[in-house]
From TrEMBL:
It comes from Mycolicibacterium grossiae. Pfam families: FA_desaturase_2 (PF03405). GO terms for molecular function: metal ion binding; stearoyl-[ACP] desaturase activity. The lineage of its organism: Bacteria, Bacillati, Actinomycetota, Actinomycetes, Mycobacteriales. This is Acyl-ACP desaturase. Its cofactor is Fe cation; Fe(2+). Fe cation 1 binds at E79, E110, H113, E200.
Amino acid sequence: MSDQRNERPDIQLLRELEPVVEENINRHLRMRKDWNPHDYIPWSDGKNFYALGGKEWSPEESKLSEVAQTAMVQNLLTEDNLPSYHREIAMNFTMDGPWGWWVNRWTAEENRHGIALRDYLLVTRAIDPVELETVRLEQVTRGFSPGQNQQGDLFAESLFDSVIYVTFQELATRVSHRNTGKACNESVADQLLGRISADENLHMIFYRDISAAGIDIAPNQAMHSLHRVLRNFKMPGFTVPEFRRKAVIIAVGGVYDPRIHLDDVVMPVLKKWRIFEREDFTGEAARLRDDLGALVEELEEACVKFEVAKERRLERERQVAEKKARKNLLVSSSAAG
């Protein structure tokens, strides 16, 4: 029998949280609503591609705007990296007891999202299927670690970092899916993404409440994890090829931007955990809590700067569109004359 007194603090914390995990699993099973991916796919719209006697995809077949296409593909490619996410939480949470049961259950539920999104996009011919498969292979080959930033440096030091990280990540993913559904301006896509975002919300609640229990048990240790996660936070989709360009399109389109990240993701969780009201952070942890206050101010400044840049970009696009419209009008007038 191992001596639990010699365990690392983060492993001790995960062990102490096992009863809370079991309690939250039971709540999750009561709250969840079963659904089937095939019910949200307009199969009657489908037709064969070239290999089976049909025709290959062409851009004019897509009924989605550039913003909707970009966001849908970004969301799908993020979901496609599920093997990496499963590996990460399996290694960090272990596969024993209630933690192990949750790892497998969470993976099974998350797997539906990629299945449904891909079926929808291919059946409705909303995107280039060849390009999608090419990027999927590259994305999954790159993998993902929540403790890795865009430079490939590792910032994760505690297993509990993963619990904190997925709290914010699941909420961010829920918001992104929901807003993408609205951007599609198509009822089936909106219903599908609404169903997926409901799953993400339940997953977020699970991790959020496990994290809350961890903060109560070991506030200073949890604060170190929280600070590392928020100071280095990146969405799991940052490994998608051309992520920066796609992120700009998605942000300008109002699907996920700095204001949404701050107001709909970061602040609701910090308020739920009462981070700036608690008095049980001491020493270095108290200093890190104060730095989170500074981070919130930095994020607020980033929101203001983004809005200015967004308006400039939209104005440029309006000017280009007006110039193109005038040119087309002149061409039409000349042809008529």
